TrEMBL record:
One GO MF term attached to the UniProt entry: NADP binding
Protein name in the entry: Homoserine dehydrogenase
Keywords annotated in UniProt: Amino-acid biosynthesis, Methionine biosynthesis, NADP, Oxidoreductase, Threonine biosynthesis
Organism: Hylemonella gracilis str. Niagara R
Domain ACT: 369-457
Active site (catalytic residues): K210
InterPro entries named in the record: ACT-like_dom_sf, ACT_dom, Asp/hSer_DH_NAD-bd, HDH, HDH_cat, HDH_CS, NAD(P)-bd_dom_sf
Length: 462
C-alpha cells in the first residue's frame, strides 16, 4: 500500500506533538497500520516557528510549509487533513471544505463538534469520508473509542467525568491548601495550567463541549450543546470544600449525562437525558474523587459491564497527539473499506438516532449540599427543616458550625451589637431541581437567613 499523505492545519502545542510522535514512532505506527503515514504539508500562521519544527527532523526537507490552509485542502496527494487550529468559524469552514474535497478529517476540536457536529457528520456521510475525533475529549484517554466500540453491547445508564484539567487543578489546590478560588486561579495561570483568559475552563464551557459529545455517542442522540446546563467553579468557597470533607465528600467539576425516567411536579412521566456540568459533591471513597491535579477521569455505567473508569492525561502535546495519531491509524485501516461499514460517528447508525430529549435542568433529580448563614438563635433550624419537609425533601446529614465571619449590626445602628451567626450545612436526599429552586427561594426570604444560600449538587455515582 502506498504511503498515506497527511496535511496538518496548525502546528501549535498539539500540532507539534503530532508531528514529533509520527516521526519518532513511525516504524511502530507502520507495523500497526500496515502502511507508512507521512506528513506532506503543514499550514500555520507563524511560518518561522512551523519551519523550525519541521526542519528539525530528517524528513523536514520534503514537507511543505504554507500560510494557506486551502493549499493543503486542494492538494490531490493529501488523503487526510488534521484540523488543530481550534475555534468555531474558521475551523468549520476548513473542515467542510476538506470533506467536500474528499479528504478524511481528524480533529481535536471539541467546540467545533459540540456546536456544528450534526452538519459536519452529515457532510462526511454524503461524501463517504471519515471524521475522527478521539482527541476532542479527555486528551490521551481513549474514551470515544470505549463508548463507541468497546461498550457497544451496553445500554449506557450514566457518564460522569472530570474532563477539564484546569478546574481540577484549581479544586485540588483549594482543598490541599485551604485557599479561595481567586488566589488559586492566579497561581494556576502562573504555572501555565490556566490560560490568560480562563473563561471556557472555569465557567464549565469546555467541559460542556466534551460532555455533549460523549452524551451523543452514549445515547445515540444528536449533539446538542445549546441544551447543556453549564455552571463553573468561580463561586466555590474554600469553606464549602472544607465542610464537604468533614461530611466525607470531595467537590469536583463534573460533566454528567444520565438516562432518566421519573415524574415531574404534576406527576407526569418524564423520560430523557440529563446533560449538565457543575461542581459536584462525590463520596471521598470513590476512585474519581481521588483524581487530583490536572488529570482527567471518566466513569461510565452500562447495564452489562457495570461501572468502568478511564483515567489519564486530558491535555498536553503528546497525550493529545497520541489520540490524533490513533485516529490516523484507524482511518488508514478503514481507508479502502465500504463507507457504509465504517463505525458510525456517534456510535449508532445515522437513521437510528433517538429523539430522546435533553431534559431542562428543572426536571433533573439529584441530591444537594446546602450552606445557610443564619442568625444563631432558637427556632431557626426548625424553620429551615419545616420548609424542606413541606416540599417532601428529606435531610440526609446536617452540620452546624460557628460562622467564619461575623455579620453586620442589627437594625443598621452603628453601635448595635453584631448578630451572632452560624452556618447550617445540610445534605439532602434526592429532589427535583425545580422543587429545590422553589424551596431555596422560600429559605432565602427568611429574615434569619443572612447571606446568599450556597447550593452544590451531590452524586453518589453508584
Amino acid at each position: 500500500m502506498k504511503a498515506i499523505q497527511v496535511g496538518l492545519l496548525g502546528i501549535g502545542t498539539v500540532g507539534a506533538g503530532v508531528f514529533q510522535v509520527l516521526q519518532r514512532n513511525q516504524e511502530e505506527i507502520r507495523r500497526r497500520s500496515g502502511t507508512v503515514i507521512e506528513i506532506r504539508a503543514v499550514a500555520a500562521r507563524n511560518l518561522e516557528r512551523a519551519k523550525s519544527i519541521v526542519m528539525a527532523t530528517p524528513a523536514g526537507a520534503n514537507i511543505k510549509v504554507t500560510a494557506d490552509a486551502r493549499e493543503i485542502i486542494r492538494d490531490p496527494e493529501i488523503d487526510i487533513v488534521v484540523e488543530l487550529i481550534g475555534g468555531y468559524d474558521t475551523a468549520r469552514t476548513l473542515v467542510l471544505e476538506a470533506i467536500a474535497a474528499g479528504k478524511h478529517v481528524v480533529t481535536a476540536n471539541k467546540a467545533l463538534l459540540a456546536v456544528h457536529g450534526a452538519e459536519i457528520f452529515a457532510a462526511a456521510r454524503a461524501q463517504g469520508v471519515i471524521v475522527a475525533f478521539e482527541a476532542a475529549v479527555a486528551g490521551g484517554i481513549p474514551i470515544i473509542k470505549a463508548l463507541r466500540e468497546g461498550l457497544s453491547a451496553n445500554r449506557i445508564q450514566w457518564i460522569a467525568g472530570i474532563i477539564n484539567g484546569t478546574t481540577n487543578f484549581i479544586l485540588s489546590e483549594m482543598r490541599d491548601k485551604g485557599l479561595d478560588f481567586d488566589v488559586v486561579l492566579k497561581e494556576a495561570q502562573r504555572l501555565g495550567y490556566a490560560e490568560a483568559d480562563p473563561t471556557f475552563d472555569i465557567e464549565g464551557i469546555d467541559a460542556a463541549h466534551k460532555a455533549t459529545i460523549m452524551a451523543a455517542i452514549a445515547y445515540g442522540i444528536p449533539v446538542q450543546f445549546d441544551k447543556a446546563y453549564t455552571e463553573g467553579i468561580t463561586q466555590l468557597a474554600a469553606q464549602d470544600i472544607r465542610y464537604a470533607e468533614q461530611l466525607g465528600y470531595r467537590i469536583k467539576l463534573l460533566g454528567i449525562s444520565k438516562r432518566t425516567a421519573h415524574q415531574d411536579a404534576s406527576g407526569k412521566p418524564v423520560g430523557g437525558v440529563e446533560l449538565r456540568v457543575h461542581p459536584t459533591l462525590i463520596p471521598a471513597k470513590r476512585l474519581i474523587a481521588n483524581v487530583e491535579g490536572a488529570m482527567n477521569a471518566v466513569v461510565v455505567n452500562g447495564d452489562a459491564v457495570g461501572t468502568t473508569l478511564y483515567y489519564g492525561k486530558g491535555a498536553g502535546a503528546e497525550p493529545t497527539a497520541s489520540a490524533v495519531v490513533a485516529d490516523l491509524v484507524d482511518i488508514v485501516r478503514l481507508h479502502a473499506a465500504d463507507p457504509q461499514h465504517h463505525v458510525p460517528y456517534l456510535a449508532f447508525q445515522p437513521d437510528a438516532l433517538s429523539n430522546l430529549p435533553v431534559l431542562p435542568m428543572s426536571e433533573v433529580v439529584t441530591s444537594y449540599y446546602l450552606r445557610l448563614r443564619v442568625a444563631d438563635r432558637a427556632g431557626v433550624l426548625a424553620q429551615v427543616t419545616r420548609i424542606l419537609a413541606d416540599a417532601d425533601i428529606s435531610i440526609d446529614a446536617l452540620l452546624q458550625r460557628e460562622a467564619d465571619e461575623v455579620g453586620g449590626a442589627v437594625s443598621g445602628a452603628e453601635d448595635a451589637p453584631a448578630v451572632p451567626q452560624t452556618d447550617l450545612i445540610i445534605l439532602t436526599h434526592e429532589a427535583r431541581e425545580g422543587t429545590m429552586n422553589e424551596v431555596l427561594a422560600k429559605l432565602q426570604a427568611l429574615p434569619t437567613v443572612l447571606a446568599p444560600i450556597v447550593r452544590i449538587r451531590k452524586e453518589e455515582l453508584t
